[in-house]
C-alpha cells in the first residue's frame, strides 16, 4: 500500500541546506503515474540546480533528481501505457506538450512547455515521484534498477549527442569529461556504435576507468603539455567529432581547434556563464560545425535503454544513501567522482 508521507531530500532556496525531510506522497493526475523510486543517479545538473547556476529558476522548495528508476504504484485514469508493477524511469524531461512545432518534429526537449524533473517539478530524490505517463521511460524487467538509473539522463544524453555529431563507424570521437557521469557512458556508447573514443579528463583514477571502458587513448588535462596538439597527433589531423561533457568552460575553445576539418563539436555540458568561440576564417576554411545537444526524445530514450539492456554499456556506479546527497555534491564539485553515484531511495 502507498503511504501518506515519505522521506525526500529538499532545499528551500538556492545553496540552502539540503534537508532529509518527511513530506507528503504526491497523488498522480489523470495523465500521470506514481513511481516508487528505488534508485536515483546524481547528475551534475542537480548540483547546478541547487547552486542556481543557470538563467532559469527552479521551483522552490525543490526535490531534485532526474535519473530515477523504480516501480509504478499508481496511475491516473487516462494512462494506457503503464500497468501497476511495471518498471519506469523519471527523466529530465518529465513532460512536454506533444503538439508544438518542436514536439511534432521529435524535438520534445525543445518544447516551450517542457516540465523538467528535479527543476520545475519535483524529481527523484524522494521515495515516490510523479511522471507524465507519456514521457516516463519504460524499463524492461531484466534491468537492474540501480544500474539503469544513470541511463535515464546521462545515457540518453550522450547517445543523442553521438547521433548529433554524425560521426560514422571508424571515426574518432573525443570525449571531454570522459571520466565523469556522462563521459563514462559516452565512451561505451561510442565504442558500441563503432566509433573510436578518445577521453580527456584529469587524474589516474579517471584515466584507468576510461581505458577500462574502452577508451582508445586518454589525455590527462592536468598533465598534458598541449591538449590540442596531443589530440591532433593521435588522430593524425583532428578528431571527427568532439563531445564537450565537462562542467567547466575551460576546455570548450580548445575543442574547436582539434576537431578535424568537416567535423563537429557537440556542446552538452552546461557550465554557468560560458561562451564558445571559433576563429571565423579557420572555421570557414576547415568547415567545422558547433552544435548544441539537449537530452533526447522518447525514441532516443528507448534506444539508449536498449543498448544497456543488451549489455553493450556497463554503468560504473557507487551506491550511497539518499540522505548523503550533500557529501556527494561536495565530491562532485571537486571532480572526485569517477563514473556515477546512485542514491538508494527506497527498499
Ligand atoms: O542535455 C544536456 N545537454 C545535459 C544533460 C545532462 C548533463 C547536460 N548535462 C551537463 C551537466 O549539467 C554538467 O554541466 O553536463 C555536464 C556534465 O555532467 P556530469 O557528467 O553529470 O558531470 P561530472 O560527473 O561531474 O563529470 C564532469 C567531468 O568533467 C571533467 C571532470 O573531471 C569530470 O570528470 N572536467 C572538468 I570539471 N574540467 C575538465 C577539463 N578541463 C574536465 N575534463 C576535461 N578537461
Ligand atoms: Zn542529468
Automatic annotation (TrEMBL):
Enoyl reductase (ER) domain segment(s): 16-343
Keywords per UniProt: Metal-binding, NAD, Oxidoreductase, Zinc
Known cofactor(s): Zn(2+)
SUPFAM superfamilies named among the record's database cross-references: GroES-like (SSF50129), NAD(P)-binding Rossmann-fold domains (SSF51735)
Entry-linked Gene3D superfamilies: Medium-chain alcohol dehydrogenases, catalytic domain (3.90.180.10), NAD(P)-binding Rossmann-like Domain (3.40.50.720)
InterPro entries: ADH-like_C, ADH-like_N, ADH_Zn_CS, ER, GroES-like_sf, NAD(P)-bd_dom_sf
Domain of life: Eukaryota
PANTHER family registered for this protein in UniProt: ALCOHOL DEHYDROGENASE 1-RELATED
Family: Belongs to the zinc-containing alcohol dehydrogenase family.
Official protein name in the record: alcohol dehydrogenase
Amino acid at each position: 500500500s502507498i503511504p501518506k508521507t515519505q522521506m525526500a531530500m529538499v532545499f528551500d532556496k538556492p545553496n540552502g541546506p539540503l534537508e532529509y525531510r518527511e513530506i507528503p506522497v504526491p497523488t498522480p493526475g489523470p495523465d500521470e503515474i506514481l513511481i516508487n523510486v528505488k534508485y536515483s543517479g546524481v547528475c551534475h545538473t542537480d548540483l547546478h540546480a541547487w547552486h542556481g547556476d543557470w538563467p532559469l529558476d527552479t521551483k522552490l522548495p525543490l526535490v531534485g533528481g532526474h535519473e530515477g528508476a523504480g516501480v509504478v504504484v499508481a496511475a491516473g485514469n487516462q494512462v494506457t501505457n503503464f500497468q501497476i508493477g511495471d518498471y519506469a524511469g523519471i527523466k529530465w524531461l518529465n513532460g512536454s506538450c506533444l503538439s508544438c512545432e518542436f514536439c511534432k518534429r521529435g524535438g520534445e526537449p525543445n518544447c516551450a512547455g517542457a516540465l523538467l524533473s528535479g527543476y520545475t517539478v519535483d524529481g527523484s530524490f524522494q521515495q515516490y515521484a510523479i511522471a507524465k505517463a507519456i514521457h516516463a521511460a519504460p524499463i524492461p524487467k531484466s534491468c537492474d534498477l540501480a544500474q539503469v538509473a544513470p541511463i535515464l539522463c546521462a545515457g540518453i544524453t550522450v547517445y543523442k549527442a553521438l547521433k548529433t555529431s554524425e560521426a560514422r563507424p571508424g571515426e574518432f570521437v573525443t570525449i571531454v569529461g570522459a571520466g565523469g557521469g556522462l563521459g563514462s557512458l559516452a565512451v561505451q556508447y561510442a565504442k558500441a556504435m563503432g566509433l573510436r573514443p578518445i577521453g580527456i579528463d584529469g587524474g589516474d583514477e579517471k584515466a584507468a576507468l576510461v581505458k577500462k571502458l574502452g577508451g582508445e587513448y586518454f589525455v590527462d588535462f592536468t598533465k598534458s603539455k598541449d591538449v590540442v596538439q596531443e589530440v591532433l597527433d593521435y588522430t593524425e589531423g583532428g578528431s571527427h567529432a568532439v563531445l564537450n561533457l565537462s562542467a567547466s568552460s575551460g576546455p570548450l575553445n580548445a575543442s574547436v581547434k582539434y576537431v578535424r576539418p568537416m567535423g563537429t563539436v557537440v556542446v552538452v555540458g552546461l557550465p554557468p556563464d560560458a561562451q564558445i568561440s571559433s576563429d571565423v576564417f579557420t572555421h570557414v576554411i576547415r568547415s567545422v560545425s558547433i552544435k548544441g545537444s539537449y537530452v533526447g526524445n522518447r525514441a532516443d530514450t528507448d534506444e539508449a535503454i536498449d543498448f544497456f539492456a543488451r549489455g553493450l554499456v556497463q554503468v560504473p556506479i557507487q551506491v550511497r544513501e539518499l540522505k548523503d546527497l550533500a557529501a556527494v555534491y561536495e565530491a562532485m564539485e571537486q571532480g572526485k567522482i569517477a563514473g556515477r553515484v546512485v542514491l538508494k531511495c527506497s527498499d
